[in-house]
Design a protein that fits this description.
alpha+beta, Beta-Lactamase, Helix Hairpins, 4 domains, 13 helices, 13 strands, elongated, disordered C terminus, binds adenosine-5'-diphosphate
């Protein structure tokens, strides 16, 4: 039994005994016991009052001295209070450290509550977004930064992607925003100034586009002469025939490379506007099958999908799907089947190409859309691949708000699926109204 409780019981026993003895001496045992009980109740009330006064002061003062069970209660609560104060100090210290460390960050950090109100931001965020201490605290971020893209991004709550917006402070600067959700719907927004990065990226893509463009003319001239020589093959000494074939093969390869580089630059360039129009997936698939039939007659091509139209650029979709079909034919053995499927599912609109080829090991899959990445370098090149096909697919899909999914395993063939948001499906006005 607790020491305080034992003392209390002893105290009550002694006091009751004392009252009993007094009562016996004066001949009024019952009255004396009642009076003793009343006195003990007054003592209890007094202790409660002291306890209440001490508790409500919220200070770290030690409790009033007391013995028995009340002493134990005072001590236990005093210990809890001290522990709590220590924990509060610790949390406060950590918070200060966190604020100091975020202040040292070059990237901006803004904390938003569930409703999008600004709680905390570091110096960099203040500088990049033009937030003012005190005046902007607890304001809705979307009231301060009136950028429709940002409002949409926060509303959509799909934070796997980053958002690129124009700087609200410096004209011409570009910011990248990444949101992470934590706690009860609160958001940690990281803001980076990517102006320099974007300029470098633009220099790089302009350079590639210019070089490809400049290479085009000399290459056309070379190819023209090579074709003329091929036409007059008999006039060329036989010792040169092999070299001539080789030169023509390489010139064609180079032309494909230049064409693909230029197409990729155009897709990458944010200045080329996407001209959306309803594109019938069925018609596109039939066209691809016809072309494929000429290129690889030994493969069997199957189509399966409903009458469905996608809002997009026909030429860009054709080049994306065409690259997938070319790859399926290039990497799967003759006599096998290539299936083209399209339709709508809960995730949106899809167009997929499945082959019965060798498949791709999981380690390569995340890197396939990188420029010039090849699983088997020699093979892709020898088969006329430029190494840019899947990069083109990725960029063409991104321009349509879509993405490429790759499902493949060695020995099990591959399925490349182009996914588009449900909103990309085009419905005739009358069909939509029904
Ligand atoms: P390439 O011009 O070399 O085909 P891509 O960008 O189109 O370049 O493809 C990149 C690499 O991905 C290819 O070199 C090949 O190794 C692999 N790959 C693409 N499609 C398939 C497929 N259907 N089956 C097996 N491997 C494939």
């Amino acid at each position: 039994m607790y020491r305080g409780l034992r003392t209390e019981i002893q105290r009550i026993t002694l006091f009751t005994g004392f009252c009993g003895v007094i009562g016996w001496l004066v001949g009024e045992v019952a009255w004396c016991l009642i009076a003793g009980g009343a006195l003990y109740s007054i003592f209890l009330l007094r202790q409660m009052q002291r306890f209440y006064v001490w508790l409500s002061r919220y200070s770290e003062d030690p409790p009033p001295s007391s013995s028995g069970i009340w002493g134990d209660i005072f001590d236990a609560i005093y210990r809890m209070r001290k522990q709590q104060a220590q924990q509060q100090d610790y949390v406060l210290q950590q918070l200060t450290r966190m604020q100091d460390s975020t202040a040292a960050l070059k990237d901006g950090v803004v904390m938003l509550d569930k409703s999008g109100q600004i709680g905390f931001w570091n110096d960099a965020a203040g500088r990049l977004l033009g937030l003012r201490r005190a005046a902007d605290e607890q304001q809705l971020l979307t009231n301060l930064l009136r950028d429709p893209q940002l409002a949409q991004y926060l509303q959509r709550e799909q934070f796997a992607d980053t958002l690129v917006i124009a700087s609200p402070v410096n004209n011409g600067d570009t910011l990248e925003i990444q949101v992470n959700v934590f706690g009860d719907g609160e958001k940690l927004m990281v803001v980076r100034d990517i102006t320099r990065l974007q300029k470098l990226e633009k220099i790089r893509s302009d350079f590639v586009a210019n070089v490809s463009h400049e290479l085009r003319t000399p290459l056309t001239v070379l190819k023209g002469y090579l074709e003329t020589l091929q036409d007059q093959r008999d006039a060329v000494p036989p010792a040169w025939h092999k070299a001539l074939d080789h030169m023509q093969q390489q010139a064609t390869r180079m032309q494909h490379l230049v064409d693909d580089l230029m197409l990729l630059s155009r897709l990458e360039s944010h200045h080329t506007e996407l001209r959306r129009q309803p594109v019938s997936l069925e018609r596109l698939a039939r066209r691809l099958v016809e072309d494929a039939g000429r290129l690889a007659p030994s493969h069997q091509l199957l189509c399966d999908g409903p009458a469905l139209q996608l809002l997009g650029s026909e030429s860009e979709l054709l080049s994306a799907f065409g690259n997938l079909v070319t790859n399926a034919l290039r990497y799967s053995p003759p006599g096998t089947t290539v299936r083209l499927r399209w339709g709508e599912d809960p995730q949106g609109v899809f167009f997929s190409v499945t082959d019965e080829g060798p498949g791709i090991a999981a380690v390569h899959i995340p890197r396939l859309t990188e420029r010039f990445y090849r699983v088997d370098g020699g093979r892709g090149r020898a088969d006329g691949g430029t190494g840019l096909g899947l990069a083109i697919v990725k960029h063409a899909l991104a321009r349509h708000g879509g993405q490429l999914e790759i499902a493949s395993a060695p020995g099990k063939g591959s399925t490349f699926t182009c996914r588009f948001p449900a909103a990309a499906a085009h419905r005739e006005a009358s069909a939509a109204a029904n």
